[in-house]
Amino acid sequence: MEHNLTNEAGSNSASSSIPALRPVADSERIQALDVIRGFALIGIFFMNVEWFNRSFLDFGSGIPAHAKGLDWLATYFVNFFVAGKFWTIFSLLFGMGFAVMLTRSEETGRAFIRPYIRRILALAVFGILHTVLLWPGDILYSYAFTAAGLLIILFGQWKWILASMGGLALLSFIPGMNSIWAVVSGIGFMGLIALFIRNEKQVTVFGKKFPLFSVIVAAVTVLMLIAAIASWLVPAMKEARNPLTGGSAAFFVIALLSVKFHQPAEARFWRAGALIYSLPFAIGVVFGMIAYQKPLSNVFNSPEAVKLAAEKMKIKKAEELAEKVAKESGKVVPKKDDKKDDKKEAKTEEQKKLERDADTINRITENQEKIAKDVQVLTKGSYVDVVKHRWEEFIDGPFNASGQAFSAIALFLMGVWFVRAKIITNAVANLGLFRQIALFGLPIGWGLSLFASSILVSHTPGVSGDGWQLTQMLLNLGNLPACLAYVSIIVLMVNSNSIFSKIRVLAPFGRMALTNYLTQSLVQASFFYGWGLGNFGMGRAQQLGFAICVICMQVLFSHWWLGRFRYGPMEWVWRAITYWQFPAMKIATPELKPQIG
Q: pLDDT category, 12, cuts 50, 70, 90?
């Protein structure tokens, strides 16, 4: 793999004489990024506040059936015009921040890798503490994995990529460490992206030259296509038809596009990001449309499935009890997989469907039980009870958050392109581009959201054929153009001479994004949970009113704080760890005017 994006300042073997990377000075800040960050934080609060009033395990079910009037309208507004649009903005901003730091290190010859690794590790610790101490919907821990993935894409060497995958794969066999496979898959995924972005090698096939990445993907496409054809011909492979068919189609598209759009090299960031984000959802729309054509059905309407589910649950609980007793007595209970039955008869398709429905019923039932337990702890438990509960959830899958990196990396890559192509760093010269993005992105993003909402706005677990899959795929597909449109509109407002330029008032709020994000969680947990003021279950419209009040106070506090200090409290800690020095905190002569720069 070629390393055309690396530099000596970023290598681990950099000379100790190379000056360390320092925190960015106020004069070097890009004001539009601070404003966008503040705007994104508002949307994040609007979305998150609902999940301080509901169990996070109920996420993805749409508008609650009991929502009426203003509560229904508030939920509709957030679900279709906010949710999904603002975490994508946050992801885009993280990629921009990475690129700004990298660009500064290249321009000044300062070291980059070690400071950024410290930055990632600090972010991971913040995320874990946020998850366990306050709220399970944290995004910082996931971003730490994504930021690590970006390092692999830009600086990773194949020998270390393969070695790390092998080592982690061995660790996954340790009991309770199954979720580490998500990390292994993520590293491999980042390696493939690196191959596309950084490798210039050409391979001759049938007398024509193609990029190495395209040839590898084409080979995978052929293998998957053979397996997909076999799945349609062999009844025993029926369950693999959809993933194999969809996978082969996806790899074919990737191979085709990677040949056509391999050059110019600087455009690979946004092209890879757009494809990685959009392609899975585009394929999901196709399968969603197919699923929508099937008759409406509910697994709970099948007496046979309900009866089988009860039997399977009874056996499962008996096995769990036996395992618990055996552990307490020091004995070993053979696993279910170890009990062989050579006399098993082949099951009919009807029997297989019945078992799948029964398993679905049990998964839904178990999740409802977990939701009930979650709500009980949040409304009645002490703070210690909540922390213990969150810790148990986190330990159950400590690396599950790495799965978010698969979609977030797409936005990170696009954010890198915005900076390296000087689109955002020289926004005034690119206002025409931002107008075009807003002009096309907003109608497409909102149009897909409105179309999705016309199909379905809520979902009952266990129901199929209702169009929920199609709704979710359309929503996710529309998030990217809407996100880019929102960012473009903010940039245009910041650089206008009209009253809209007053949006710069959000700049200090955005400069203290980490502090304000964590403070929002602290305020919400204290206000809604049982160990605090106990307002859990507040109506959705009231939730938005609460969020607006807190945001207004945070904006005012951010202006006051940054008139006296250079950084927000958590930003100062993060910078101290990143640059391994204590940045100057206090401003010598406090500014009493509003901080909008």
A: very low
Structure tokens at 415: 């954010």
Q: Distance between CA atoms of 390 and 489, rounded to whole angstroms?
A: 38
The residue length of the chain stands at 597
pLDDT digits (tens, 9 = 90+) for 179-216: 788 888 888 899 999 999 998 999 998 889 999 999 99
pLDDT at 20: 54
Mean pLDDT computed over 127-153: 93
Among 62, 35, 55, 41, smallest CA distance to 139 is for: 41
Does residue 15 register a pLDDT over 60? no
The answer to whether residues 424 and 431 touch, using CB atoms and an 8 Å cutoff, is no
CA of 197: how far to CAs of 101, 117, 268, 321, 348, in Å? 19, 21, 6, 52, 48
Whole-angstrom CA distances from 372 to 57, 246, 365, 367 are: 10, 36, 11, 9
Specify the range with the lowest mean pLDDT, choosing from 2-11, 47-56, 304-313: 2-11
Pair of tokens at residue 108:
């000044």
Across-strand partners of 463?
Answer: 298
Output the DSSP codes for 272-325: HHHHHHHHHHHHHHHHHHHHHTSPPEEGGG-HHHHHHHHHHHHHHHHHHHHHHH
What pLDDT does 21 receive? Answer: 54
Per-residue model confidence as pLDDT tens digits over 279-300:
999 999 999 999 999 999 999 9
- Which whole-number Å values give the CA distances from 147 to 235, 324, 385, 413, 470, in the listed order? 43, 40, 32, 10, 30
Alpha helix stretches (DSSP H) within 331-430: 349-380, 383-396, 405-420
What is the predicted pLDDT for the residue at 242? 85
> What tokens appear for 433 in the block?
């581009």
pLDDT band at 110 (very low <50, low <70, confident <90, very high): confident
375 SS3 class: helix
Return d(Cα 100, Cα 104) in angstroms, integer.
6
Q: List helix spans (H) across 51-179.
A: 69-81, 85-108, 113-133, 140-155, 158-171
Rounded average pLDDT over 25-47: 86
Residue type present at position 515 = T
86 within 8 A of 545, measured Cβ to Cβ:
no
Cα separation, 564 vs 586, in Å, equals 6
Longest dimension (CA), the chain: 85
Report the sign of the C-alpha dihedral through residues 549, 550, 551, 554, in that order. Answer: positive
The SS3 assignment for 21 reads coil
Taking the alpha carbons at both ends of the chain, their separation in whole angstroms is: 42
The alpha carbon of 538 is separated from its chain's Cα centroid by a whole number of angstroms, namely: 27
Beta strands 463-464 and 297-298 are: antiparallel
Coil, helix or strand at residue 430 = helix
172 Cβ contact partners less than 8 Å away, ≥ 6 residues apart? 178, 180, 181, 184
Q: Quote the CA–CA distance of 84 and 221 in Å, as a whole number.
A: 31
